[in-house]
Specification:
heterodimer, A: mainly alpha, MetI-like fold, about 0% strand, B: Rossmann fold, eight-stranded mixed sheet, 11 helices, 14 strands
Chain lengths: ~300, ~350
């Protein structure tokens, strides 16, 4: 066929028209995850945990408030317990399986929300600092360095001690320092991308700074943010459990893995399951998240891929 | 105040100067950050990348800009298209001072003055398809209808020698030469009148270089473009340019018609540069002039003639103390040297 004055016969539109959007991108990502066994195992386990958290009232054998003082410290099935309480009971007769299922809600919610909030804050500040440099960059970077000089747990304990226990206080205490990781990553990547000529080309085409950051630079660093977010989520879940263990997490009437582990502390020799089983639930979730995160890094890292002749 | 070139009281656009650069300076100022300022007495460093350059570009011509790496030729090109803010001086485009244009006026200028980049691997956003890359300039230049935009993209791709069916491919699916063609299409999408070609072929294979240069020349004829062609490859510059300007350490040392520069170079630096062109023909070989030392730092350029530290024919004290002006020694042939 020939093109005259740029007019192309309509039938050729279909040939060339291949829409690239979020859905096709996600589908192709899923296809790649399928070929990566550890990432796939991680992803499936995470999905199982999320389903467990969402449908907790339907799958748990007892109500979350249920406790039977006549059935205290019952062992799990494999240690001579009964199917009435498959994972045994704790010292006040609560069903451990029910408690673990409900505990996953807080862990997953806290992990997800803290990462979402800190990734948003970190990306926003990192993009501004990296793109505009100057005094803004100096001020934010030094503040970030200042926050980094505290050990995370001590810092979170301090914040919780001041704010008092509570779900949103917990989120605040965890994000207060966690955004720094995202800030540093994004700032560095923006610094690198900013000097590439495609950014100058966009400037020469008259695009505004905001448009350049959002639609030219961010798509190039989104994958790194995504990988870091996944890896940080596991860490956040552990931090939440640690704070709950110390009694500084959510109010004690909400079951969490951390508070369960703590409540079993005094019975670790005669009723090991109270501490151990929530701990195992925690380990499996964090392990799966890390497997998934590292799998994603393998899949998405452009440096591990052959891209043209770069 | 700058006077507009008038011909019978009307703005002389056809024959008059298309772009005038007047005493343009671009200094990069490296300031120590807030904390360093408070703690130490570190002073700011000023890199004089472009230091007082005046030149004219006529409509429809190709002005070649040569010089070794770090002499400021890229900075000059980017300042002219306002990617960098000029420190001092004026840029006058078609009689209009756009040195400090902002907002709408700058957008208008960007439609007329475009740039082609050196590295086709970093000048295209790896996460965008060709369609997306070319849509941005089309939208900016007012092609709002998606159907019309699609047709324009097809036309542009076809014009630069690419298959329009590849418009949904990503840059990494193309070779270096093809990527450079996309870069050219992107610049053309704005329908510019003036293009700064910033070493458009130096990152490409020699066989591809010729294709891209031919494409640029065809487009120039077809669309009546004006080029500022920046290069360090002298044979490329000889081939494409109508006039040539030679830069050394932020200044223009010699400027004139291509033939004058190549066959009758006056400035010792130009002579040294030209002597480095390799040739197969033995009789055409010039005696190689080897310059001593290295290029001085643009942070602290030598007093007097900037070339005096490496010059092999200098006259003595005068060269080291007085800065030579760019003088017209023959018709249309300018040189900044005390020897003339």
């Amino acid at each position: 066929m020939t093109i005259k004055n740029g007019i192309v016969p309509a039938k050729y539109y279909e040939v060339s028209y291949k829409k690239s959007n979020l859905i096709t991108n996600l589908l192709s990502l899923l296809g790649k995850i399928k070929k990566h066994p550890t990432a796939l195992i991680g992803m499936l386990t995470i999905i199982a945990y999320i389903l467990m958290a969402v449908f907790a009232p339907f799958i748990s054998p007892y109500s979350v408030k249920y406790s039977d003082l006549s059935a205290r410290l019952l062992p799990p099935v494999w240690s001579g317990g009964t199917w009435a309480h498959p994972l045994g009971t704790d010292q006040v007769g609560r069903d451990l399986l029910t408690q673990i299922i409900y505990g996953s809600r807080i862990s997953i919610l806290v992990g997800f929300l803290t990462v979402l909030i800190s990734a948003s804050i970190g990306t926003f500040l990192g993009a501004i600092a990296g793109y505009y440099r100057g005094t803004v960059d100096t001020v934010i970077s030094r503040f970030a360095d200042f926050l980094l000089s505290f050990p995370f747990l001590i810092f979170a304990v301090g914040v919780m001690a001041v704010l008092g226990p509570g779900f949103w206080n917990l989120i605040l205490a965890l994000t207060f320092k966690s955004w720094v990781e995202f800030f540093r990553l994004v700032r560095g990547e923006v610094l690198e991308e900013k000097n590439k000529e495609y950014v100058e080309a966009a400037q020469a085409l008259g695009r505004s700074n905001g448009a350049i950051i959002v639609s030219e630079i961010l798509p190039n660093i989104f994958q790194s943010i995504f990988v870091l977010a996944t890896l940080r989520m596991g860490y956040m879940i552990i931090m939440e459990a640690s704070l709950s263990y110390l009694g500084l997490g959510v109010p004690p009437d909400i079951p969490t893995w951390g508070s369960l582990i703590n409540s079993g502390r005094n019975h670790i020799f005669d009723a090991y399951w109270i501490s151990t089983l929530p701990g195992i639930a925690l380990v499996i979730l964090v392990l799966s998240i890390n497997l998934f995160g590292e799998g994603l890094r393998d899949i998405l890292d452009p440096r591990l891929k052959v891209e043209g002749s770069e | 105040m700058y006077k507009v070139p008038l011909k019978d009281g009307v703005l002389d656009m056809e024959n008059g100067t298309f772009i005038q650069i007047k005493n343009l300076k671009k200094y990069f100022i490296e300031e120590p950050d807030l904390l360093m300022k408070l703690v130490t007495k570190k002073k700011k460093r000023v890199v004089k990348a472009v230091d007082d350059i005046s030149l004219d570009i006529n409509k429809g011509e190709t002005l070649g800009l040569v010089g070794e790496s770090g002499c400021g030729k890229t900075t000059l090109g980017r300042t002219i298209v306002r990617l960098y803010e000029p420190t001092e001086g004026k840029i006058i485009f078609k009689g209009e001072d756009i040195t400090e244009a902002r907002g709408e006026k700058l957008k208008e200028y960007r439609k007329k003055a475009q740039i082609i980049f050196q590295n086709p691997y970093s000048s295209l956003n790896p996460r965008k398809t060709v369609r997306q890359i070319l849509s941005v300039p089309l939208i900016a230049s007012g092609v709002k209808d998606p159907h019309e935009r699609e047709e324009r993209i097809m036309y542009l791709l076809n014009r630069v020698g690419l298959n329009y069916r590849q418009m949904d491919s990503y840059p990494h699916e193309f070779s270096g030469g093809q990527r450079q063609r996309i870069g050219i299409a992107r610049a053309l999408a704005m329908s510019p009148e003036f293009i700064v070609a910033d070493e458009p072929v130096s990152a490409l294979d020699v066989s591809i270089q010729a294709q891209i240069i031919n494409l640029l020349e065809e487009l120039k004829e077809e669309l009546n473009l004006t080029y500022l062609f920046i290069a360090h490859d002298l044979s490329v510059v000889y081939h494409v340019s109508d006039r040539v300007a030679v830069m050394y350490l932020g200044k223009i040392v010699e400027m004139g018609k291509t033939e004058d520069i190549f066959f009758n170079p006056l400035h010792p630096y130009t002579k040294a540069l030209l002597s480095a062109i390799p040739s197969i023909d033995k009789s055409k070989r010039r005696e190689r002039i080897i310059l001593e030392g290295t290029v001085p730092s643009p942070v602290n350029p030598p007093k007097g003639c900037r070339f005096s530290t490496r010059c092999f024919v200098k006259k003595g004290k005068m060269c080291e103390e007085e800065e030579p002006e760019l003088k017209e020694v023959e018709k249309g042939h300018f040189v900044a040297c005390h020897l003339y």
